[in-house]
Write a structure and sequence with these properties.
alpha+beta; Deoxyribonuclease I, Chain A; six-stranded mixed beta sheet; 10 helices; double-stranded DNA 3'-5' DNA exonuclease activity; hydrolase; Exodeoxyribonuclease III; AP_endonuclease_F1_BS
């Protein structure tokens, strides 16, 4: 018998439990006798059988379950991952704001654009002290992209394929693998004035991005292409469509290539969850655009089908734009299961 209850009247249970101290005996409250309002004299004392020594095999099994109970074998059951993209408009000038935002928002992965510094000038020590690994593709004074991650950053690619053949030395693209997800931080050319050489460069860059997205899709790996696309996909993404219709961000050619990119099978995370107009990620410094709500939605997160299957949430975090010495952009984030 491994354990049980004895009906006793002031007597100790027999056997190996006879010498067990009273505080080792688990007592259940005695029921009231029907109609008497008083408990019966007999008490039910419950005891637990003494534990037998665990065998070596039992110890091994118990140890395994203790180690794995908080680490499910199915990665889809792990904690969600939050990936944010943020055009900081000079990482050194905005470092205090960036560190404060990282501390409050606590994203797992951050895709930065317009860091505007060379690799050796990037504030890696400060960001590592905040708990992030860093991968940087910088350029003096202009452009520049980076990836921050709480988990290890692996297999880093700097530059969009095709840059060598075009002689493109601008630091606008960095890609890496983090926790089984391929992520890219991109800073697509602005393209103004349009038409013109800068606009032609923008369109060529977008075609190269489309070609590379096809390559990534063929791997069947979950991936996220995030960054400042410098494209307002529709009139719902600009506060005044008429005044912006000839700008490189809103021209039909830019929008057509953005649609072509999405039509490869990518999901634009924000629009998938928020169809309403008037949500923006950029407000110009001039003309009181922030105060007047005169914004543009030009920062996007595009998900491969494998990543879109894991889409939980996506939103724009406007709070950083309200700070002193803020970037003219604000972060947008996506959460994947």
């Amino acid at each position: 018998m491994r354990g049980g209850c004895w009906e006793v009247a002031g007597r100790k249970p027999p056997g190996p439990w006879a010498d067990r101290p009273p505080d080792r005996l688990r007592q259940r409250p005695a029921p009231l006798s029907p109609g008497s309002g008083r408990p019966p004299r007999q008490r039910r004392i419950c005891y637990a059988a003494p534990r037998s020594p665990l065998t070596h095999e039992a110890k091994a099994i118990l140890s395994f379950f203790r180690r794995t109970r908080n680490h499910p074998a199915n990665p889809r059951e792990e904690a969600p991952v939050r990936i944010a993209t943020f055009n900081v408009n000079s990482v050194r000038a905005r470092l205090p704001n960036l560190l404060e935002w990282l501390g409050s928002a606590a994203p797992d992965v951050v895709l930065l654009q317009e860091i505007k510094c060379q690799d050796e000038q990037f504030p890696a020590l400060e960001l590592e002290a905040a708990g992030y690994h860093v991968a940087v593709h910088g350029q003096k004074s202009y452009n520049g992209v980076a990836i921050l991650s709480r988990a290890a950053i692996e297999d880093v690619r700097r530059g969009l394929p095709g840059a060598e053949s075009e002689g493109d030395e601008q630091a606008r693209y960095i890609e890496a693998t983090i926790g089984g997800i391929r992520v890219a931080s991109l800073y697509l050319p602005n393209g103004n004035p349009a038409p013109g050489e800068k606009f032609d460069y923008k369109l060529r860059w977008m075609r190269r991005l489309i070609d590379h997205a096809r390559t990534l899709l063929a791997t069947q790996t979950p991936f996220v292409l995030g960054g400042d696309y410098n494209v307002c996909p529709t009139d719902a993404d600009v506060y005044d469509p008429v005044n912006w219709q000839n700008d490189a961000l809103c021209r039909p050619e830019s929008r057509a290539l953005f649609r072509e990119l999405c039509h490869l099978g990518l999901t634009e995370a924000f629009r998938a969850l928020h169809p309403e107009p008037g949500r923006y990620t950029f407000w110009d410094y001039q003309g009181g655009a922030w105060q007047r709500g005169q914004g543009l939605r030009i920062d996007h997160l595009l998900l491969s089908p494998q990543a879109a299957d894991r889409l939980v949430a996506c939103d724009i975090d406007k709070e950083p734009r309200s700070r002193e010495k803020a970037s003219d952009h604000t972060p947008i984030w996506v959460e994947l299961s």
